[in-house]
């Protein structure tokens, strides 16, 4: 994979560097070799944007890409907008089996939230049922992007959305409320918890 990543970086120098992949693998540790193909579960690893860019590049280099992924849990890291955009692009390339996406307790803002929401469409990751975005840096613009993804036909399978501990006001919630008929399976919409709410 390192050789393929290096070949990719030599032809597309802005995508990923082998050094970034090596740094990522050091953070992930030996468990990466034992992880099931259906799950990416790397919490509390200090993963930052460069790591997620490298992770996305590695994932799409797999023989089946992201086709078999069912769960992604990258919570409790240091992922910001650049990392979330890279993840959104990877998912947008095709992750049809993905049902659970957990990105809570990171540093994702509106741009990252928009990229993630945009990936949840036919051809991308349309089967996501649970999306966790609590305790990030998402405001009304991020929620408007989620609502726009709903209106555009994404997120048809969504049953649970959690977004407590962000910077969302009544305007962001109103954007979602106006598009609720586009997510008929939605059962849980969480904007507050015992640890924090919104604005």
Q: What is the quaternary state of this protein?
A: single chain
Q: Quick check: average pLDDT?
A: 86
Count of separate DSSP helical elements: 8
Give, in spatial order, the strands making up the sheet with the most strands: 1-2-3-4-5-6
Distance between the termini: 44 Å
- List the uncertain runs: 9-14
What's the SSE pattern?
HHHEHEHEHEHEHE
The overall strand count is 6
Radius of gyration: 16 Å
Helix-strand category:
alpha/beta
What's the helical proportion of residues? Answer: 40-55%
Largest sheet: 6 strands, parallel
What shape does the CA trace take? globular
Structure commentary:
- This protein has 199 residues and is α/β, with parallel strands linked by helices.
- The protein has 8 helices and 6 strands, in the order αααβαβαβαβαβαβ.
- It has a 6-stranded parallel sheet, with no helix packed on it.
- Helix 7 links the parallel strand 4 and strand 5.
- The longest helix is centred in the N-terminal third of the chain and has 13 residues.
- About 3% of the residues have low confidence.
List the helices and strands and how they pair.
Layout: H1 2-11, H2 18-28, H3 31-34, E1 39-41, H4 49-61, E2 71-73, H5 81-92, E3 100-102, H6 110-119, E4 130-132, H7 140-151, E5 160-162, H8 170-178, E6 188-190
Attribute tags:
6-stranded parallel β-sheet, single chain, alpha/beta, 8 helices, 199 residues
Question: Briefly, what is this?
Answer:
This protein is an alpha/beta fold and 199 residues long. The chain is built from 8 helices and 6 strands. A 6-stranded parallel sheet has the order 1-2-3-4-5-6, with no helix packed on it.
């Amino acid at each position: 994979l390192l050789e393929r990543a290096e070949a990719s970086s030599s032809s597309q120098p802005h995508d990923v560097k082998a050094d970034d992949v090596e740094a990522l693998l050091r953070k992930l540790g030996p468990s990466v070799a034992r992880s099931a193909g259906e799950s990416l579960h790397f919490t509390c690893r200090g993963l930052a944007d460069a790591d997620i860019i490298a992770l996305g590049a590695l994932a799409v280099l797999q023989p089946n890409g992201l086709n078999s992924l069912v769960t992604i849990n990258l919570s409790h890291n240091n992922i910001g907008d650049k990392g979330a955009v890279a993840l959104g692009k990877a998912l947008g390339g095709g992750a049809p089996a993905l049902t659970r996406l957990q990105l809570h307790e990171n540093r994702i803002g509106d741009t990252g939230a928009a990229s993630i929401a945009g990936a949840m469409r036919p051809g991308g990751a349309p089967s996501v049922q649970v999306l966790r975005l609590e305790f990030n840096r998402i405001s009304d613009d991020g929620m408007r992007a989620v609502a726009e993804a709903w209106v555009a036909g994404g997120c048809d399978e969504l049953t649970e959305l959690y977004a407590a501990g962000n910077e969302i006001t009544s305007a962001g919630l109103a954007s979602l409320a106006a598009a609720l008929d586009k997510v008929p399976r939605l059962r849980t919409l969480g904007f507050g918890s015992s640890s924090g709410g919104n604005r």
